[in-house]
Specification:
The structure is a single chain. Helices cover about 30% and strands about 20% of the residues. It is of the alpha/beta class. It has 2 domains: about 60 residues, DNA polymerase, domain 1, CATH 1.10.150; about 260 residues, TIM Barrel (Alpha-Beta Barrel), CATH 3.20.20. α10 links the parallel β12 and β13. α1 crosses α2 and α7 packs parallel to α9. It is elongated, with a radius of gyration of 21 Å. Bound molecules: S-adenosyl-L-homocysteine and iron/sulfur cluster.
């Protein structure tokens, strides 16, 4: 866990890992749980302020550990209350986290990678290339910073920022454990949502160990079109994706898969597509989020007209599928879906294996 000269960042350790860390120090597991509470419940990063730890333990912690949070380098509120923070992780990597307040709720959209290797054709993050995975500390660090900045706990977290969370599995799982831990962020499984473009083996693995809510970026009702829009479909086509998702929610009547469907003018938004979509989702507990396409420089796509989006929604609703059109939030600060680009210095497509 420790390499010479390097301190362990306790921010990214979930309950099990922090207990083990304290045991390796010759201390007790419960002291680890205390520190988990100090960091995530009370927002404390200074060991000297953790008053229920002995002086000796605090001294020992200062030598081998730290609580290092991401640094805000850019802070931009939008006219609709949405808030975007650009966070610097190291001198080469910046990411974005977006806070969306709505009445009593506050939802944070969290990034999981710097860039993304999957290169969906309508996504500006994908167009930036891929630099690296975030660590668990960098993922949960976004929650920590947003909680501090808004001065109260978040009510919802969605892993829908930059990157493909299921391509950074271990770090995302550790961060989600902290989000759901009663000693830390205390978010229920219904309030933590992971959004994936459909990495089927990872969905199957996730089902074994977690029950967070699942959103899947569908965007097309047939393989031919989905192959073009979401290239990972060439590896995990609809006939394997849909059963894996159905299996994910099996056994809990309250659970549904949220399908994300970006509305692209003349590409995936006709009545024929709606009909195919209804047939495709038959037998899978579903709700659909229609996302108006957010444009970015250089894209060949346009957003469907409001009338077309509404007709598409009505068609799906008539078939009994709960369908919502996502409000575009933070449009004036480029904080909307697929506009998060952060800073990706290494524009390689390292790791893209279809
Ligand atoms: N990689 C994950 C999560 C991040 S993307 C995924 O693909 O699900 C979050 C959501 O924004 C996805 O549904 C994605 O398809 C959508 N999105 C990407 N680019 C977009 C754009 N330009 N306009 C609208 N939605 C977009
Ligand atoms: Fe990656 Fe998601 Fe963008 Fe596709 S939509 S390129 S998976 S971030």
């Amino acid at each position: 866990m420790l390499t010479a000269g390097q301190k362990t960042n306790l921010l990214g350790l979930d309950r099990k890992a922090i207990e083990a860390f304290f045991q390796t120090l010759g201390s007790k597991a419960f002291q680890g749980r205390n520190v988990l509470k100090w960091i995530h419940k009370h927002g404390v990063t200074d060991f000297d302020a953790m008053t229920d730890l002995s002086k000796k333990l605090r001294q020992q912690l200062k030598e081998v550990a730290e609580v290092r949070v991401p640094e805000i380098v850019f802070d931009q509120p939008a006219s609709d209350g949405t808030h975007k923070w650009v966070l610097e992780l190291d001198c080469n990597s910046r990411i974005e986290a977006v806070l969306i307040p709505e009445g009593d709720r506050s939802t944070l959209c969290v990034s999981s990678q710097v860039g993304c290797v999957l290169d969906c054709s309508f996504c500006s993050t994908g167009k930036q290339g891929f630099s690296r995975n975030l660590t668990a500390a960098e993922i949960i660090g976004q929650v920590w910073v947003a909680t501090r900045e808004q001065g109260k706990p978040l009510t919802n977290v969605v892993l829908m920022g930059m990157g493909e969370p299921l391509a950074n599995y271990d770090a995302v799982i550790a961060a989600m454990d902290i989000m759901q831990d009663d000693l830390a962020c205390m978010l229920s499984k219904y309030r933590v949502t992971i959004s994936t473009s459909g990495i089927v083996p990872a969905i199957e693995k996730l089902r074994e160990i977690s029950d967070v809510s699942l959103a899947v970026s569908l965007h097309a009702p047939n393989n031919e079109l989905r192959d073009q829009l979401v290239p990972i479909n060439q590896k995990y086509p609809l006939e394997v994706l849909i059963p894996a998702c159905r299996e994910y929610v099996r056994g809990d009547k309250r659970r549904k898969i949220t399908w994300e469907y970006v509305m692209l003018d003349g590409i995936n938004d006709t009545d024929k597509h709606a009909k195919q979509l209804i047939r495709l989702l038959e037998g899978t507990p579903s709700k659909i989020n229609l996302i108006p396409f957010n444009t970015f420089p250089g894209t060949k796509y346009r957003c469907s007209t409001p009338g077309r989006i509404d007709a598409f929604r009505q068609r799906l609703m008539r078939s009994g599928i709960i369908t919502m059109t996502r409000k575009t939030r933070g449009d004036d600060i480029d904080a909307a879906c697929g506009q998060l680009v952060g800073l990706v210095r290494d524009r390689s497509r390292r790791g893209l294996k279809l």
